[in-house]
Each structure stands twice: as C-alpha cells, then as structure tokens.
Write a structure and sequence with these properties.
heterodimer, A: 260 residues, alpha/beta, TIM Barrel, nine-stranded parallel beta sheet, two-stranded antiparallel ribbon, 11 strands, 16% strand, B: 405 residues, six-stranded mixed beta sheet, 14 strands
Chain lengths: 260, 405
C-alpha cells in the first residue's frame, strides 16, 4: 500500500509498540485508524532514546519491561495490515535494534508484513547508503526527518531520498508537548516544498486540535506522538483505545475531498 | 557475536571514519551544528593564534608538559620491566581531561558560543569543563547520572563551587551513558546557542578526532621524554579505556612505531556476565550508540546493556570508534582488569611510590603489575596515569575498609 493522506490535514499517529502491551497497541492502532488516522507509526522501544522527551522515554521503558522486541513489532504490523488494508504503516526506530536484527532481514520481514515505510531517528542521509539500498530493494519508503536547522542543501538531499512523505520537525528539540507552534515549522515546510512534491508532515509537540488546524494551513499532515502516548499512560489498557479514539475525533479532521 | 554489519560505505575517505567505525548517527537537528563544528575546528587547527593561545594555557594554566616519572621502587619490587608513569594526574583539576576542555572551550569562544554543556561520569571532565568555563566567563551546565553524583560527590561540589550548574540525570542506569543522552537532548533543544563540550573520544564526527587531537600532547611528550631518558622507545604503553580519550592520546604518536605495544585496559567490573563489567571488546558487538558506530555492550535485541565498574569513568557501554579500528586491525591490544585488581593496584602504587591514582587509571596500573614481572628488565612500560585518586576517597575508604571511615 502507498501512504495516502485522506484528510486535510492528514493525521499520523505515533504509538510506542508494546506500551502498555502489544494487544493494547493493536487495539489502539485499529481504533485510531477508524477514527481518522491516515498513518500509524509503530515505535520500536529502545533503551536509550536520546531524541525523545520524558513521555516517550517512559513508554519505551514500559514496553521494554514487558519484553517487546523488534520481531514483535513487525508481527504487530502484520496484524494491523491484515485488519486495515488501507492504512499507512510506518516502523519508527533507532538504528541499533535494526542493525542488530540485520538490515537485510529487517527489510525483508517488514516488507513481508505489509509495512509501507521506515523512519530511523538517528540515520541521516549521509550515512544511509546501505539502508536506502535495502529499502529500495524491497519497496519500503524511507522517511527522513527535516529540521529547522537543516540548510537548503541538506533539505534537497532529504527530499530526494525520502519516499511516502517528508517529516518536518516543528522546532529544535526532543519529542514532547509545546504550547504554541513556532514560525520555524511553516518556514521549514515552505523550504522543503522547493525540493519535492511529496506530502510534508509536521511533528514534534503537536498536541491538540488547534495545533492540527494550524499545521493544516501550511502542511499536508500532522504527527501526534507524545500527546497520545501521554493519554495512554494515564489510561488503563482497557480504556486507552477509547480514549485515543475520542482524542482523535476531537481533532475534527476533514476528509480531503470535502476540504477541496 | 553478530556479524559486522557495515552501516554505510566503508571508505576511509568518508568523514570521521576509522576503518568501518565512527560516522554520524544523530538526529537531523544536530547535523548542521556538527558540520559547522567540523569546519570551525579545521580552521582553528591551522590558525597559529589559536594554537599559540592553547599552548600557553596548557603550559601555564594546566601545567604541561607533565613529568614522565621512573617508578623505581615499584620496578625493583616487581623485578621485571622498567615502569614509567606519565603524570597526567599532576595536571590542574587532577586529570588529563583539562587538555580537551581547554581546546574545545577556546573553540567555542572562537565560534561565539556563550553557553557550554557537558556530560561527566567520574566528574573529572565536568570539573575540567567547569574550570575552563570559569576561566573564560562562560555559562556551564554539566549533566551527571545520579549514581555517579553519589559516588563522586567531591567532584559535584567542586563543579558547583566553580559556578557550574550540575543537573542530575535519573533516567536509565543513571551513569555516564544517560548523562550523554541528556546532554544530547539539551543540545538538540538549544543547538543554536549552545556548544556541547563532549569529554571523551566518542560521539559523532568530528568529536572523536577532535578530542584525540587535543590529547595527542600526551604521547608526543611521552615519546620525547622516554627518548631523552632511555634513548629508545618503550616496549609498551598502557592506558585505561572508558570512552578512550586518555588512551588515544597516549597511543596516537606511537601508532606508526609498530614495535611499541599499545595496551588498552577496560573495566572488568565484578564478573563476566553482561551487566557486570564494561569490557566492550570481550562482551560487545558492533553497533550504534550516541552518534557513533563502534563496539557496544548490548543484548540480542540491540538494547544497550547495563554496565558495572568500581570506576565511574570507565562504566560505559561503548568505546571510542578509533579504538574499535585499532582493535580490529590488531595494532592495539585490549585487556580488562576487574574491580578487585584495581583496588589492589591503588594500594600498591600509593604505598610503593606515594602516588594515589584515580580508580580509572588504576586499571592501567593493575595491568602493569600483572605483566611487568613477566618481562625482562631491559623492557620499558609506560603507564598513562590519567588522573589522581583524591576524588575516590569515599569509595576507597568504603571498599578498603580504612580505619576511621
């Protein structure tokens, strides 16, 4: 499946796989898709998530404490794909778990599971040669992050090598909530568009309907991560799917066709 | 052990690669800053005024050159190779760390950065950074794991007295690894205004190269001094290896001298199981941690393993990428010494030579104690005594059950 945004703006939901359990993550993902998420990013928990704020750090710790492994995340992706053939599915990880699993084996297994794309937080385009070759071999979309600090020549490389969408980081910093969107985000998206026609999703700190509406004015999709992971942390495994569904419905996403 | 997976092209010409190791594995937000740093460092390196300013501070402020001391009583007692100690412990702030802190702080000043952040394990790099920030009038924030703050309390107090803010890190294992992650999170957030003064030969390019360059003076002096005293090169140079800054500084000028053995000593901790030591070459596999591709202690899922060492400065799951390359090429040998042998070495050196080594450096002393008796008297061992042990008095008093403690 190709990654498609059916809403304006589209919605990408990040979930740390295995928090609070793999079953719960599956139920939350299916609920989120039905409520309007165009793409689910399944986060692979990592022991040392240096690009993440405290909310996702804690979620990773909980998932690891329950023994969540990369192969479990791939199996979870397969189940979500079987249940929701139309949804976009991205595996979101730090590099080391994938390196240890084996880059070739990972590419094969993720593609076979029906995953659409891969985002590795600590891979930049300069270091991506083998990773890109593997993604290309199996038809997975490599998604790169673009930062407000990235100069134009880096944005060109990021846009050229990305497939599916480009992930624009809304501000310098780690994942987590923020009060207001800065001007950084709109300026970055405008710069990215000079190099690509791919959709651009904006993430980091997007936490409410107002943020999503703001993002919709200049980008194709919003990524919500910490706000939803935080909601899951404050819910029980039984109540979290319902809570996430209500949260997404509260964002009042419009179908892309109507928005036109 | 997993097969060595080349994460990228393995060409030596790639920036910051040591064989297949090194590179840059960081969030995109930091890339512009790393490229800027690489260029600024390259410019400073060839700037005579910058080099002169650093040389003057190293001499008059830090106390270079440090002596190469012949440990005569120890040599006689062991009855083997002659043992020399490179006295980095006599430097201002008590360890080799000041070499790099001065170099990078001058670079930060040249780049117009006024806010400095650093991580620290044993606190020696934190103290060195706090010291140079006081000297140059810069704001200083040091990240330190809670476990390390407890066991190296004296250094926490020193940093605070020097005007630095010490931020406790309570995530993960609450040691050096977690302090680095937290410093990187700060840097990602404040990258436009902040200079990250990394304290070991670790992290993304250009740090491993830059930190090594600032410590090259150790082996340069060693070589001159041993040639002056003995008229020949040493049989072996021994240094402890956490991230590997003192070791790479002590090895570097000897790398072309193939007859000189280079021996790195890792922390053997209290056992051989994963989690009980920090011997990356014994229990680790190539992987990516905190910006660089090197040997990493990790489990089968690529999750970073816990480590243990009596010395906070060696208690780290990865090792500088240049050491990984020296290991694989066989140019340097890496061994480990456990907590007990290290504590014995502290006592032995203190009572034989009147020198109290840092627990980190005592790992290198322990290896010298092991191999010197097996070597002929004509052989020469140079031990890099990277730091002094005053900071460790609390641990030593407890571990050695000193009267009055």
């Amino acid at each position: 499946m190709a990654i498609q945004f059916r809403h304006k703006p589209g919605l990408v939901v990040y979930l740390t796989a295995g928090d609070p359990s793999l079953d719960a993550t599956r139920a939350i993902a299916l609920g989120a898709i039905d409520a309007g998420a165009d793409v689910i990013e399944l986060g692979v928990p990592f022991s040392d998530p240096l690009a993440d704020g405290p909310v996702i750090q804690r979620a990773s710790e909980r998932a690891l404490a329950r023994g969540t492994r990369l192969k479990d995340v791939i199996a979870l992706a397969r189940e979500i794909r079987a249940a929701r053939p139309e949804a976009g599915l991205v595996i979101f990880s730090y590099f080391n778990p994938i390196l240890r699993y084996g880059l070739v084996r990972f590419a094969d297994d993720a593609a076979a599971a029906g995953v659409d794309g891969v985002l590795i937080t600590d891979i930049v385009v300069e270091e991506a040669q083998q990773y890109l070759a593997e993604m290309d071999r199996v038809g997975l979309a490599p998604i790169f992050l673009a930062a407000p600090t990235s100069p134009d020549e880096r944005l060109e490389a990021i846009a050229t090598h990305s497939r599916g969408f480009v992930y624009a980081i809304s501000r310098t910093g780690i994942t987590g909530k923020q009060v207001n969107l800065t001007d950084d985000a709109a300026a970055l998206v405008a710069r990215i568009r000079r190099w690509t026609r791919l959709p651009v999703a904006v993430g980091f700190g997007i936490s409410n309907a107002e943020h999503v509406a703001q993002v919709g004015e200049f980008a194709d999709a919003a990524v919500i991560g910490s706000a939803i992971v935080d909601l899951i942390e404050r819910s029980t495994p039984e109540t979290s799917p319902g809570a996430v569904v209500r949260f997404i419905k509260g964002l009042q996403l419009q179908p892309a066709a109507l928005a036109r | 052990m997993a097969s060595v997976i080349h994460p990228s092209a393995t060409s030596e010409s790639q920036p910051g690669r040591f064989g297949i190791y090194g590179g840059r594995y960081v969030p995109e937000t930091l890339m512009a800053a790393l490229v800027e740093l690489e260029h600024e460092y390259a410019a400073a390196k060839v700037d005579a005024a910058f080099q002169a300013e650093l040389a003057l501070l190293l001499k008059d402020y830090a106390g270079r050159p440090t002596p190469l001391y012949f440990a005569k009583r120890l040599t006689t007692q062991l009855g083997g190779a002659k043992i020399y100690l490179k006295r980095e412990d006599l430097l201002h702030t008590g360890a080799h760390k000041i070499n790099n802190a001065l170099g990078q702080a001058l670079l930060a000043q040249r780049m117009g950065k006024k806010r400095i952040i650093a991580e620290t394990g044993a606190g020696q790099h934190g103290v060195a950074t706090a010291t140079v920030c006081a000297l140059l009038g810069m704001e200083c924030v040091v990240y330190m794991g809670e476990v390390d703050m407890a066991r190296q309390e004296l250094n926490v107090l020193r940093m605070r007295l020097l005007g630095a803010e010490v931020r406790a890190v309570s995530s993960g294992s609450k040691t050096l690894k977690d302090a680095i992650s937290e410093a990187m999170r700060d840097w990602v957030t404040h990258v436009r205004t902040t200079y990250y003064l990394l304290g070991s030969a670790l992290g993304a390019h250009p740090y491993p190269t830059m930190v090594r360059d600032f410590h090259r003076c150790i082996s340069r002096e060693m070589k001159e001094q041993i040639l002056e005293k003995e008229g020949r090169l040493p049989t072996a140079v021994i240094a402890c290896v956490g991230g590997g800054s003192n070791a790479i500084g002590a090895f570097y000028e000897f790398i072309p001298d193939r007859q000189v053995r280079l021996i790195g000593v890792e922390a053997g901790g209290r056992g051989t199981a994963l989690g009980e030591h920090a011997a990356r070459f014994r229990g680790g596999a190539p992987g990516v941690l905190q910006g660089t591709f090197s040997y990493v202690l990790q489990d089968d899922d690529g999750q970073i393993a816990a480590t243990h060492s009596v010395s906070a400065g060696l208690d780290y799951a990865s090792i500088g990428p240049e050491h990984a390359a020296l290991h694989d090429s066989g140019r340097a040998e890496y061994v480990s010494q456990d907590d007990k042998a290290t504590l014995d070495a502290v006592v032995r050196l203190a009572r034989t030579e009147g020198i109290l080594p840092a627990l980190e450096s005592a790992h290198a002393v322990a290896e010298a104690l092991r191999i010197a008796p097996m070597m002929p008297p004509h052989d020469i061992l140079v031990v890099n005594l990277s730091g002094r042990g005053d900071k460790d008095m609390g641990i030593l008093a407890h571990e050695l059950q000193l009267p009055g403690a």
